[in-house]
Design a protein that fits this description.
- The chain has 4 helices and 5 strands; from the N terminus they run αβββαββαα.
- The protein has a 5-stranded antiparallel β-sheet with strand order 1-2-3-5-4, covered by helices on one side.
Length: 142
């Protein structure tokens, strides 16, 4: 079995460090959806030694905080599934009561069509999000 996350960035690269990377996911319904991906192929958090585990989660929390600062979502969803791609990664997803899937997970059924203007307003803030993540991550995980 080949691992997509071992051979591809897994989204639009925001930042690559020696041990992890942050990407923006191309999801039209959820602008700002990020993944934090461990670069080496491991399947579970407990495959990491405690210091690396803390570094990885520090990156996840730095992305969460950047999303809250720039996009001001009503909620952040954190998910580490890996059933389809068993390579350690976390999804960091800004959520709004108006988004297409709320209150379900983004992988659940659509509940509504969100106004394009709302999504476009969030999408325009993505360059600010990228800068915010880059400014926070080294301090949060270094």
């Amino acid at each position: 079995m080949t691992c997509d996350l071992c051979h591809e960035d897994g989204g639009t690269l925001v930042l690559r460090l020696d041990d992890l990377r942050i990407v923006l996911v191309d999801d039209a319904d959820h602008p700002g959806f990020c993944r934090v991906i461990w670069n080496a192929h491991v399947k579970e958090m407990t495959d990491l030694e405690p210091a690396r585990m803390a570094r990885f989660m520090g990156a996840v929390f730095a992305v969460e905080d950047a999303l809250r600062t720039v996009l001001a979502p009503e909620k952040i969803n954190l998910a580490s599934l890996g059933n389809m791609t068993p390579h350690l990664h976390w999804h960091v997803i800004p959520r709004y009561a108006t988004d297409a899937h709320y209150p379900n997970s983004i992988w659940g059924g659509r509940q509504r069509d969100e106004a394009v203007a709302l999504r476009d307003t969030r999408r325009l803030k993505l360059p600010l999000l990228v800068e915010e993540v880059r400014s926070r991550l080294p301090a949060a995980t270094g």
